[in-house]
Design brief:
Layout lengths: L7 H16 L5 H9 L20 E4 L2 E3 L2 H11 L6 E5 L5 H8 L3 E6 L2 H13 L5 E4 L12 E6 L8 H5 L1 E12 L4 E8 L5 E9 L11
Helix pairs in contact: 1-2
The chain binds S-adenosyl-L-homocysteine.
Length: about 220
């Protein structure tokens, strides 16, 4: 059972955060509405929930972080989610990004390397009434049982784009993935034009925790 409250103070802080995201250039209203609706502080331990509406990444334990709200909005906007899209997410972490995708009507499949984080996120999403299919494991291998996907989002920094993921993307599908070294990564959005062709657009630079796995670091 979820033993948390969404106070007026929280709602007010969330409204301010969403206004800031708009100022920073996020234009997709569906994304902004989802982030206005979802209580991000539920994804924080109660002791730290006062930090939930700062536009910052924050530690979630196990050496990992919940992505900065701007980054979540930026990646989600690039995915152009349509209701019913089958989406693969690599790096469930706190489950906040998963929740944003589910709120937009996506059918979400999410993989987290660390079992402890995966279990915690699954419990929270269920308590919040969101359906997402989650597992712990190496997301750089994709999720063949449910492939192909309309969209793929990677929320950890990759050294290269894992080809296994591209193979599990539908023709016309979009993959959003940060690629670079351990200090900085460029946000790539890739559109699968044919079985063999991906069209790449390079966006702004970000800093993510590393994607660790067979096709990662
Ligand atoms: N979207 C999450 C981001 C968490 S940080 C959120 O906003 O809360 C990125 C997550 O990717 C970490 O939890 C990390 O453990 C996970 N990760 C790293 N490599 C992975 C891999 N190969 N497969 C699945 N998850 C991975």
């Amino acid at each position: 059972m979820l033993n948390r409250e969404d106070s007026y103070k929280n709602k007010g802080a969330r409204k301010k955060l969403v206004a800031l995201l708009k100022e920073k250039g996020i234009t997709d209203n569906a994304v902004l509405d989802a982030m206005l609706a979802i209580p991000r502080h539920y994804f924080f331990d109660k002791t730290f929930e006062s930090h939930a509406y700062e536009d910052k990444a924050f530690p979630i334990g196990e050496g990992q972080t919940i992505s900065q709200p701007y980054t979540v909005a930026y990646q989600t906007q690039l995915l152009h989610i349509n209701k019913g899209d089958k989406v693969l997410e690599i790096g469930t972490g706190s489950g906040y990004q998963t929740c944003v995708l589910a709120h937009l009507g996506a059918d979400v499949y999410s993989i987290e390397r660390l079992e402890k984080l995966s279990t915690k996120a699954q419990t929270l999403l269920k308590d919040l009434g969101y359906a997402a299919t989650c597992k712990s494991g190496d997301g750089t291998l994709g999720w063949q049982d449910f492939a192909p996907f309309d969209k793929i989002i990677v929320t950890a920094g990759a050294p290269v784009m894992p080809k296994t993921l591209a193979a599990q993307l539908n023709i016309g599908g979009i993959m959003v993935i940060p690629v670079g070294n351990e200090h900085t990564q460029e946000m790539w959005s890739l559109v699968k034009k044919s079985t063999k062709t991906l069209e790449k657009i390079v966006h702004d630079s970000f800093k993510f925790v590393p994607l660790i796995g067979q096709n990662g670091w």
